[in-house]
Specification:
alpha/beta, 6-stranded mixed β-sheet, binds inosinic acid
């Protein structure tokens, strides 16, 4: 029987995305539920530092059913907007709960997707994720990036967080992101992550890329 991956998250959207991906690799995923009041998010300038801190905290909250070969997964992500020098980045959670998606759109109101002089996408942004897996005392780190741009209106649906304002760049047939404005084999056709379902989002997702990167480092996936 394959080990269970216990994912420390209170976010159902993240849980769904990781479960779809890891069940395809043969892992069973369970949510590691810890009262939010018992956890803290360190104020650090790197997603990896936050992820490592969450692993250490999770070790103090293992469920009784935690088996000998079971693993703990944590993940930390953020939205990095180019025109804002990477802000909100590690402050994404705070920014989402304060100014929200409409606030981010307002911050970029004066910028268009195509600079008339350089043709650069002035609304470029990327999601970055760091996934950390604890297994028998060892921690493995995986990283993933999803480039795209910030839309000029909300496109909502099933997503969470900044999904309603983030439009990923198309991917080529090998699932590599293409430069802004190019049509590829995989496309959301201008829709935000918020307007597509989790299975479709997973083709582009920074989270899935971080998990792929992480699990490719394990001796046997
Ligand atoms: P966290 O600290 O990793 O939970 O995420 C920081 C902030 O980024 C939260 O406001 C999340 O909602 C947002 N975020 C993280 N990943 C995603 C995503 O895949 N889509 C949309 N927002 C996200």
């Amino acid at each position: 029987m394959s080990p269970t991956v216990w994912f420390l998250t209170g976010n159902e959207g993240k849980l769904a995305e990781a479960s779809i991906h890891l069940s395809n690799l043969g892992y069973s995923v369970k949510q590691l539920v810890v009262d939010e009041a018992e956890l803290y998010e360190p104020q650090a300038d790197s997603l990896e530092v936050v992820a490592r801190s969450k692993i250490n905290q999770a070790l103090n909250h293992l469920p009784e059913q935690f088996g000998n070969n079971d693993m703990i997964l944590v993940e930390d992500a953020g939205l990095f907007i180019k025109a804002l020098d990477g802000f909100p980045g590690v402050y994404s959670s705070f920014v989402h709960s304060t100014i929200g998606n409409l606030g981010v759109i307002r911050l970029l109101n004066h910028l268009s997707t195509e600079d008339p002089v350089s043709s650069a996408n002035l609304r470029a942004a990327e999601f970055r994720a760091v996934a950390a897996l604890w297994c028998n005392g060892e921690i493995t780190i995986g990283e993933g990036i999803c480039p795209g741009h910030i839309g000029d209106e909300l496109m909502e649906g099933n997503g969470f967080g900044f999904d309603p304002i983030f439009i990923p760049y198309d991917l080529d047939e090998h699932k590599n992101p293409l430069p802004a404005g190019n049509y590829g084999a995989y496309s959301t056709h201008g829709k935000t992550f918020g307007a597509i379902d989790s299975v479709a989002k997973n083709k582009f997702s920074h989270r899935v890329r971080a998990l792929e990167n992480l699990f490719s480092q394990l001796p046997s996936a």
